[in-house]
Amino acid sequence: MTLTWRTASVELVEGYLLTGQDGAPTTRVGQARVAFEGGFAHVEVPGSGRVEVLSAPAIRLVTYRSEDSCAV
After folding, report:
1. Which class for 66: exposed (0-12), middle (13-18), buried (19 or more C-beta within 10 A)?
2. What are φ and ψ of residue 27, in 5° steps?
3. Three-state SS across 11-27?
4. Distance separating alpha carbons of residues 38 and 25, to the nearest angstrom
5. What is the tens place of the pLDDT at every residue in 14-69?
6. Which of 11, 14, 67, 72 is geometrically suited to a Cys-Cys bond with 60, CB 3.0 to 4.6 A?
């Protein structure tokens, strides 16, 4: 399956964390690459060195522009 990645900001529901650009746990990132597959969100924060996979209910808000999508 080919994921469609988008550049977006991501905010998580309370109790969930992502690794931020500085390597510290955070609930919000201003810029990340995000792709959705089934009930999961793949999130790559620039500088973190990883793609984290979160259950979709962990996501409070994802904001992106439609022209920012790219297939990978």
Report:
1. exposed
2. -100, -10
3. EECCCCCEECCCCCEEC
4. 25
5. 999 999 999 899 999 999 999 999 999 999 999 888 999 999 899 999 999 876 55
6. 11
Q: What is the DSSP letter of 30?
A: E
Q: Which residues contact 54 (CB under 8 A, 6 or more apart)?
A: 12, 16, 18, 40, 41, 43
* Selection from 42, 49, 41, 40 nearest residue 20 by Cα: 49
Q: In the block, which residue shows the tokens 């609930």?
A: 27
CA 3 to chain centre: 13
Longest distance between any two alpha carbons in the chain, whole Å: 31
Burial of 53 per CB tally in 10 Å (0-12, 13-18, 19+): exposed
Domain boundaries along the sequence of the chain: 4-65
